[in-house]
Design a protein that fits this description.
- The structure is a homodimer of 243-residue chains.
- Chain A has 243 residues and is α+β, with helices and mostly antiparallel strands.
- Helix content of chain A is 28%, strand content 33%.
- In chain A, the strands form 3 sheets. Chain A has a 5-stranded mixed β-sheet.
- The longest helix of chain A has 13 residues.
Amino acid sequence: MVPYCTIPAVMESVVKDECSLGVVPIENSIEGPVGITLDSLAHKYDLKIFKEIIIPINQNLIVNPGCKLEDIKEVYSHAQALAQCRDFVNKHNFQQHYAVSTARAAKDIIGDNSKAAIGNRKIVELYGLEILKSNIQDMDNNETRFVVLSKKCHKRTGRDKTSIIFSIYEDKPGGLYRILGIFEKNNINLTKIESRPSKKGLGKYLFFVDFNGHMDDEIIQNILKEIEENTYYLKVLGSYPEF
Amino acid sequence: MVPYCTIPAVMESVVKDECSLGVVPIENSIEGPVGITLDSLAHKYDLKIFKEIIIPINQNLIVNPGCKLEDIKEVYSHAQALAQCRDFVNKHNFQQHYAVSTARAAKDIIGDNSKAAIGNRKIVELYGLEILKSNIQDMDNNETRFVVLSKKCHKRTGRDKTSIIFSIYEDKPGGLYRILGIFEKNNINLTKIESRPSKKGLGKYLFFVDFNGHMDDEIIQNILKEIEENTYYLKVLGSYPEF
């Protein structure tokens, strides 16, 4: 395993054959899509989704040993983690500071009892800190979906998903409706639909859609062909076993 | 005009009649939706969209007077602004630091020539700094859409938009397709569609949809009635003049 500092750096390592697989977060059930992952897959790197992994996320209030809740005035964490704990942070009226990572946040609070960090258990061991409160995220069902990226596609298993990105002609109203109709008439279930600015101005979107089936299936091949005829951009991110 | 520190605080000020109108960002053409605005409108505050405002955004590299590009090692800004300037920041290999606001970032760099901030022109005057490079955002078409929130709705002008939030029954495939079909058969154009996690687990979404027309129009009233019958949650955020 090789750690990289940023999501694009992980993708680049696979493109350059430094790593055979790259693991990046793609969406969180509370905070939504991970913009940089979707944008990099859409605009920059030609990689396939080889696998998906779903991991439950627990956020903890991390403090210096012996520190009490009433000592804390400020809280440090990555923007995503702070966003996942909005209710908790607001309830305690902590002043918020953004850090580039939760690990960096933990490092920033060492030795100062007026400061706490938010992050996972691993960080605690890393820096000799302790957990004052666990599971402080707003909702219990906090999960992050990661994708494993590769240069090659996964073979058909019979229980697969396919991910695509497309954009529709702007001058034709009902474009998205027509694309969804292609899935509907073939009785193929969408498991995800996400819109994302195409970066060509407000109101112009890319759509990220996941659906059941493998691109080696005849029915999926026909669907992809029909979508291609009705969009001006289509990118197939790959087919992979459902988690 | 009264400034508030956070987006929910702006909304709260309108709810509590401290202000008659509140202005908050709702989407950016490069970075996408402003999660906290959508979530607060969906789950927390019962406010109407009274107006929309679209403002072009220019990001600048802000430095201490006399500082040169080769002096800079670190760059400070809000996560949204840093994300809008990803290519520029990566090209120069600056170490990134997140700040709670672009104004705070500017304050953090005062007196240190190895540090720069990213933000708009106003900040420069505020702290006696200067712009080293202007328009450093990744794309030229960087615009942010703001909404003006109120307790009451705007009257019909004849050139209006309506915003709604809905979620569909999970056990019925093709739910979104059926809702879009209601607009299609009435020949009403969608100007925006955005999916957002419903916070009830991965794969469960709220949809934020904007379309042409005012909720006082008979055709829009019929559409809303039909949508209500086919969704388990529908919230009308209001009708307002198109920008």
